[in-house]
Amino acid sequence: APLPVPQKIVATWEAISLGRQLVPEYFNFAHDVLDVWSRLEEAGHRPPNPAFWWVNGTGAEIKWSFEELGKQSRKAANVLGGACGLQPGDRMMLVLPRLPEWWLVSVACMRTGTVMIPGVTQLTEKDLKYRLQASRAKSIITSDSLAPRVDAISAECPSLQTKLLVSDSSRPGWLNFRELLREASTEHNCMRTKSRDPLAIYFTSGTTGAPKMVEHSQSSYGLGFVASGRRWVALTESDIFWNTTDTGWVKAAWTLFSAWPNGSCIFVHELPRVDAKVILNTLSKFPITTLCCVPTIFRLLVQEDLTRYQFQSLRHCLTGGEALNPDVREKWKHQTGVELYEGYGQSETVVICANPKGMKIKSGSMGKASPPYDVQIVDDEGNVLPPGEEGNVAVRIRPTRPFCFFNCYLDNPEKTAASEQGDFYITGDRARMDKDGYFWFMGRNDDVINSSSYRIGPVEVESALAEHPAVLESAVVSSPDPIRGEVVKAFIVLTPAYSSHDPEALTRELQEHVKRVTAPYKYPRKVAFVSELPKTVSGKIQRSKLRSQEWGK
Ligand SMILES: Nc1ncnc2c1ncn2[C@@H]1O[C@H](COP(=O)(O)OP(=O)(O)OP(=O)(O)O)[C@@H](O)[C@H]1O
Questions:
Q1: Per residue in 502-544, pLDDT tens?
Q2: Whose C-alpha lies nearest to ligand 1, atom 12?
Q3: 166-196 confidence digits (pLDDT tens)
Q4: pLDDT band at residue 208, thresholds of 50, 70 and 90?
Q5: CA 345 – ligand 1 centroid, Å
Q6: In whole angstroms, what is the distance from residue 66 CA to residue 78 CA?
Q7: Is the ipTM of this complex over 0.85?
Q8: If pLDDT is split at 50, 70 and 90, which confidence band does 1 have?
Q9: Which residues on adjacent β-strands are paired with residue 238?
């Protein structure tokens, strides 16, 4: 029997996403995906759930169908092309809290061919100046809290022509986006972009040297997540997908490009700060079917009494961005009945490894290579290593560079070249692959500890510590030692129940515990109890900060 219309259309995108069908020469996500869903919705091919659902936790709510999203984003496109004076190919910084305007402006950028540069709202004046200068952005859109920081540096950013404010009040020198949007026309002709045209630029977090600009194309993002959205995120047109990520992080784009091609609803909570109870209450109150959070948040959630909540619609959970400790996955699954599916990727890529729904999970593994990527473990010369051996996680880019891959590090051919070795792109992460094709993350290259010629991955030690009831979370790094050169040191945040225990006795107990659950040489010879761990805005543990502190550099 012929497939119903939406399934047939999505199947075509999925085939492209999997590398089984050629990427079309022209592609624009707004025109070729969102406007198509608008028509499918109108023809009754979609349940009546919204395409976008935003709440702020204090009663305000916004729901848009694909039709309404189309209308609002065409208005927004007219603001960018009109008052804002943006031409196709111009760049715009997009730094907003989790406000509906972030999604509107993202789509408006697609409609006008504007290259968006998302950033997090924690950017300082210095960060903003660096980003505006390096990217030569013509425009920036932000909210009240960041506007003064932009004003302080905008004179030093000669390319910056317009500043757009998302606010109910006005500010001298700024265009008011909400006012302009109200008056804008709903008629707009979508720009006909080529698949290879730039769509977005992301600044890496710059843990090593100045942040680099990662450029993605209309198709790398626009079509690169359809298959993983279907298989790993397991989305269909009746799903409601909540990812708690900050808008400035690639995960917000991953969510957009996974959910909307599959006809799913993107759910957003403004979440001014991460609060476990707010997250759990939101999951109870709204018919969210699919949840994605970084492991840090799941670590917080499993500390709560989850049996007090009823998640009526929740059926699929995901995590990624850093390693998931098996203990956290088990606790979540045990208390909610819902499995936690881990994925792995980078700003430079789409999903590199994942645990698609239904695949057997090996606890502690980040899953198998996600097609169309050919993922291998290679040595420093780019030679493929056999199963079981530790090496660099690498994605094959020769003879064929996957379409769903970054174009380059902008204005930085040396860095682009340095990220390649033989036929591969080198991620900078260390792992091994087992004979069944599952990948086991060890750590970032720089985070791996060399102690008395043993190589120790921090994640394994942290996961061992996580199994002990005293440990809320931990970061394991190398620390100098006069005899061994370097040793394992664990920075540990205790659970409330253990916070007043005798630190020396607890240190010994935790050391014995690690010796019992992993190879004894991996145990932390040094232990420090701390009240919190340094983290990036996206919630990742910054081991490099602790390491520099240990080594005094
Ligand atoms: N499931 C996972 N398990 C372990 N690590 C992960 C996982 N998912 C992502 N990561 C880590 O996150 C990295 C990608 O993160 P991202 O591209 O956001 O930039 P970043 O590494 O935080 O920034 P920068 O490259 O500037 O340091 C991966 O290379 C890996 O180290």
A1: 999 999 999 999 999 998 999 999 999 999 999 887 788 999 9
A2: 321
A3: 999 999 999 999 999 999 999 999 999 999 9
A4: low
A5: 7
A6: 18
A7: yes
A8: low
A9: none
Q: Which amino acid belongs to residue 55?
A: V
Nearest CA to ligand 1 atom 14: 346
Read off the pTM.
0.94
How far apart CA 429 and CA 442 sit, in angstroms, is: 8
What is the SS3 assignment for 142-209?
A: EECCCHHHHHHHHHHCCCCCEEEEECCCCCCCCEEHHHHHHHCCCCCCCCCCECCCEEEEEECCCCCC
Q: Measured in whole angstroms, how far is the alpha carbon of residue 184 from the centre of its chain?
A: 32
514 Cβ neighbours under 8 A, 6+ residues apart = 461, 464, 465, 522, 523, 524
Which amino acid, one-letter code, is at 382?
A: G
CA of 295 to the centre of ligand 1 (A): 12
- State if residue 447 touches ligand 1 by the CB under 6 angstroms criterion: no
Tokens representing residue 376 in the block: 């291998």
Q: Determine the residue of 228, 317, 322 to mutate for testing ligand 1's pocket, defined as the one with the most ligand atoms within 8 A of the Cβ atom.
A: 322
Residue 429 beta carbon below 6 angstroms from any ligand 1 atom: yes
